[in-house]
Amino acid sequence: xxxxxxxxxxxxxxxxxxxxxxxxxxxxxxxxxxxxxxxxxxxxxxxxxxxxxxxxxxxxxxxxxxxxxxxxxxxxxxxxxxxxxxxxxxxxxxxxxxxxxxxxxxxxxxxxxxxxxxxxxxxxxxxxxxxxxxx
Amino acid sequence: xxxxxxxxxxxxxxxxxxxxxxxxxxxxxxxxxxxxxxxxxxxxxxxxxxxxxxxxxxxxxxxxxxxxxxxxxxxxxxxxxxxxxxxxxxxxxxxxxxxxxxxxxxxxxxxxxxxxxxxxxxxxxxxxxxxxxxx
DNA sequence: CCGAGTATACGAAGAGATTCGTTAGGACAT
DNA sequence: ATGTCCTAACGAATCTCTTCGTATACTCGG
Lengths: 135, 135
Description:
The structure is a homodimer.
Chain A: H1 14-26, E1 29-30, H2 31-41, H3 47-60, E2 63-66, E3 73-76, H4 80-95, H5 100-109, H6 116-134
Antiparallel strand pairs in A: 1-3, 2-3
Helix pairs in contact in A: 2-3
The first copy, chain A, binds a DNA duplex through residues 13-16, 30-32, 45-49, 51-53, 55-56, 67, 70-72.
């Protein structure tokens, strides 16, 4: 069976997200590479399990693959940012009644350390938002 | 069967989260009330489906119930804030490589409108964070 | 050519999530 | 007492997620 029509991007499951994280970090990779990397975190995770997931994800359109070589090479078909947006939106809708800023408050209030550059970046965004609203 | 030992709070599933949202909004409610409210959003959602979920959630420790009346009254056993913390942490770990501020940036950058009070609150938090780090 | 090693493909088991149909019991008006 | 209406309880079907075992096929050194 070939991949489905995918009008919208499919939400990755937890296990799929673990694999996507690796692909985003490693770039195009064989099943073996992904498996080895994942094994660092999760010992006893089978090779064929990872293979199966990549096949499923290919079918869902979450990854692409180059199969001209014997060992197929997989790469993400969705960007990290796109996925972050998607999941963040779902969290906001599901648990924060649609309020972005409530999520921001929640995330910040739990922080103990934030790098200065990030603080600055956040402030810059706030300034832009405020500017946009005052005009 | 009575509820399990629950050392840690169980992660609510999507469907369970929908019901929790209603309970947080409505306060203690009968199955019927919850069902009616949910029906506004999701037509064709069976009454016994909601009932079943509430029973499952009772078993998981996500809700409590008062069954002295014929129509049992359910209320949340987990707070909205607690659940928001839990889910936010999972999102941060799963999709943002553990970086809180990256989530904040993501959430803010998608925003078009943020209420002034919230902006102020966010700034206040930023100030506190910055102060804590400079000392 | 053959066997060891490494790949993919496939199917299926087991757990969890979601959704109801059906059953049975209480309340109450007739 | 009986039928109607509401309620909870239960079991089960279906779907999705997660994980492998097994089969099969390619590659390369001897």
